[in-house]
Amino acid sequence: MNTNHNKSYGRLKWKAVSAREAQHLNEQGVSSSIPQGPKFLKELSPDSAVYEPKQPITKKLKKLIDDYAYGGAFQSAILKIRQQRIPELDRIHNLYQFYYYIDALVTWIPGLRVWEWQGDIYHERTDYLHLTQFYYYFNQPELVSLQSPIAPFTGEALTPLSLWLREFAVEWGEFLDTPESANHLVTYKFGPEYTYQDYNGGENGIENYKTFNEWFSRTFKDIDRQRPVAQPDDPRIIVFPAESTFVGQWTITTPAGEPMPAESSIVVKHVEWPIPELLKGSEYAQDFEGGIFVHSFLNVFDYHRQHAPAAGRIIEAKFIPGQVYLDVQLDLLDAEGRADENSSLANVAMPHRYLDAKDATDYQFVQCRGLFVLETAIGKIAVLPIGMAQVSSVVFVKPGTQELIRLTQQKKKGRSYD
């Protein structure tokens, strides 16, 4: 086969392959003419083999399971998911294989699986797939009961399992800061939704990024032209602070006294979520009583930099520690659902049974998040970049630049997410 991965391919006339075609592509293996990594879990041990964890974070999980007698709960979740016939996860039958899976995931080099087939080229949403697979285990009732609740007014320390989930996210994030993590970035050229051509990458384009995290936090070639600010001279105009999809907006209540005292909050699905909890210790929390809460979300392929929604002065900026929650459900994709689900995706192989991450409005109040408060001509605006799953760190940039503020190893000593 042609080994030149710079060759041109046509775009499909339809959005996604059928469920049967997606299964066929998964069974036949990826294209050998496009440089990409080996199939995930390729070296998975057989059922009867004893496997000892290799990575520090996996060893921590094994110790946690042993110390707290969580083995039965994990085994129950593993068997339940195995019976659901989810590709890749149906190969994991016991805790030993689960430990191998965690070892493989925390050192997985991101990239898309890509196929050449019938004159066209297709790709899998591989990074999204691995995120949803991982959290699907921890969405099982047996394991949900071992984690900190997604609920207002908890005020309690994270459970051991919720702490481990956060540590896992941190450890994988550290791996994604290594040069090795950039080995398969070229495969993202075959995912049209990533629009790699719109971003800075130097002379060699996408292959010039030194780490996966550098690629993930990529910058536009000319943001003033590509994403111009609407009416920049009008201080009354508030713009979207991120490349995101609007979810909704809610009125923030004012505090109530007797006989039913309540903090300033928003009400979602009949549950009150207090704004002081969301802003956690902000001296400006009272300024948002009676205001508006707006929620939008970013997909894995979106531009992941947050901007100011209005001109002003930053009067507060901080990181708020919390959980690394992700709500994942197993969905069935019928013809109507396929049209809706893939409206922003092209050339994607998506199976009939697939895992999907939900972005409800509630978990943000207990999640790892950043906060910066702006003093503007129309009052104070609080902006909260909120993490989901492994995308839970928040890094601020130096004023007037896009240069990340990085802590040295010396500065990291003594710091934690608690």
From TrEMBL:
Q: Which domain of life is it from?
A: Bacteria
The UniProt entry, under InterPro entries, shows: PS_Dcarbxylase
**What residue range is the signal peptide?**
none
What is an annotated GO biological process for this record, any one?
phospholipid biosynthetic process
One annotated GO molecular function: phosphatidylserine decarboxylase activity
Q: Name one Pfam family in it.
A: PS_Dcarbxylase
Keyword list (alphabetical) reads: Decarboxylase, Lyase, Pyruvate, Zymogen
**What protein am I looking at?**
Uma4
The encoding gene is: uma4
